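ARCHIVE CARD
SHELF: 3
SLOT: left
DATA:
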Amino acid sequence: MQTPTWFYKKSHPVALLLWPVSQLYRLTVLGRRMAYSIGLKKIHRLPVPVIVVGNITVGGTGKTPLVIWLAEQCKSLGYKPGIILRGYKGESQEWPQLVTPESDPALVGDEAVVIARRTNCPVCADPDRPNAARTLIENGDVDLIISDDGLQHYALARDIEIMVIDGARRYGNGMLLPAGPLREHRKRASHADLVVTNGTVGVGEYGLRQKATTTVNLVTGERRPLSFWRYVLVHAVAGLGNPQRYFRILEEAGVEVTRHPFEDHHDYTSSDLDFSDENPIMMTEKDAVKCVDFADDSYWYLELDIDLDNNFADAVTRALRFTNKGPVNG
């Protein structure tokens, strides 16, 4: 979903009204975490390094591009990474699901298909994260697991935790759900091994910057530089937790944008994108995998990559070396 604007406003009446409910949620979160820490709930430990990437707020922060970057980085260090994720919005009746670039996003989720397309790594979707990881280890040539959005999934033991923060919105009003955007208390950040910030960086955090240079046609596969669209009016489509960030990327590149925000992980139909004119449609890659069946040659998606602080790669290498669970070349 798109997060409510009052999540990011201090002392909003709705947030204050929901504050008592948020305290019940807080007790539930603390109780669940304690159940794992004292052994009431089982923690599954794997024979390979496990990197968990996640956040403590609802809404988009840039986790998936970071997962894609990590996969390539781990390959360069001699690992054979596999990637697991929940398969959010996937409607499969059977789990786990091994994901390929040709998988149906309606079954396994849009993010799973994007990751499979961009990384060429084994990918497995399953709400049961330990089961997904075991499936990859048993079925593929995998010696490292990366979990996308698994920070709160304590059933899977992790060697490295990477927390991602939205540098502009950060922790919002500082309240837990449903009064604010927090899944856990903001102090949870102090327990993560590495904190990456998409935007303005705080003390002890590594900077992440999204960059976009290429657009891709959904039908023909033609690639055009983003600069091609300067001064061109497009319908910008984004089904994201924070669609405004995507719109700003286009606008800062000089594209003339008509904004069309949708709910995060929206299931598109052709009628959703019938804008009754001939202007091209520019969407996110996550949206594009769900529109291939009805797209025409006016449909394009923006291919996003990221830049990270130079010392972040070194920090990941040191953390992996410390696990003593596999080869680190370099």
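SLOT: right
DATA:
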Amino acid sequence: MKKEHPDIVIFPGWRKQLEKEGLEALKEKRYEDALTHILQLEQYEAASYEILTGKVICFIELGRYDEAIGLCRKLMKEDDPNYYKYLHIYVTILFQTSQYGEILSLLDEIFQSEKIPHTYREQFWQIYDLSQKFYQDQELTQDDKEWKQFIHNLEGGSFQEQWRLLSILRKKSVSHYIDEIIPHLSDAELNPVIKTGILQWMYEQKVDQEMEVEKFNQTSMINPIHLDDVMETPEAKKILLLLEEIEQNDPTLFEFTRQILFRYLYVYYPFTPSEEAIQSIAEAVLALALEYLQLDQETSMLEYDNEARGKWMEEIKHMEMKYFSQIEQ
């Protein structure tokens, strides 16, 4: 730290007096007073590492944990002979502030890369074992909290909040929640995009259980383990096959067309279009891609007007509104 008064030299007697008063205040648990004396010493760059350790203790006892952590990191870099002492204090602060994941990451790295003195190694392992247990408990508590929020939002929350919570939960195991979530898949009021997200969560985790799914006035018994992914259904593959010429001639247009098809099928999932509709849907997604990209490009696939194509274009636009209103807000 730079001197606040660069032209003034602190006399040895005054320095010793400030150190004495600071340490006495620290022993008597007068942490604000101790901090005042330490800060005076720092103004003249007269604070020893012992005194700065006292400053860390003051920060901890006053609940100023961020400042304690910052100072510990600084001392770990600057006072190499006492590195493990500051590391121990640092880890203890993390433990006090329930930062168990940070402790596990830090100690994992240190156990692998450093030769730790025996006196500290045993203490670090004790902290590590406790942190591992508390971290797991913390994760379970957080999962439970997020799950309760998700269920609450399914029963009347915003689509955006439903999607946000579902995105978090999909990284975790679905097995604990299946019985509670299944009834929502047959709820006609629940947004179809959310239902698809839930079904994909179950599909990815190979859930093997029959459940009723309702979408767009259709109801069917579904087992997620027997589902295909959105673009791997036979119907999706047939539509893409019809667009093969576009893929060969204009990959950019094909990719845009494919994205439109994905969004439509995602909203409709797990239901799929009828065999009779496949040709018209292929034409509709291509026509929409040209429309969105403002391209006046001729293609044999759209050579003749088609009433069915026009109807499917309107249907797909409607589905896209549902998709974008939830996914991208």
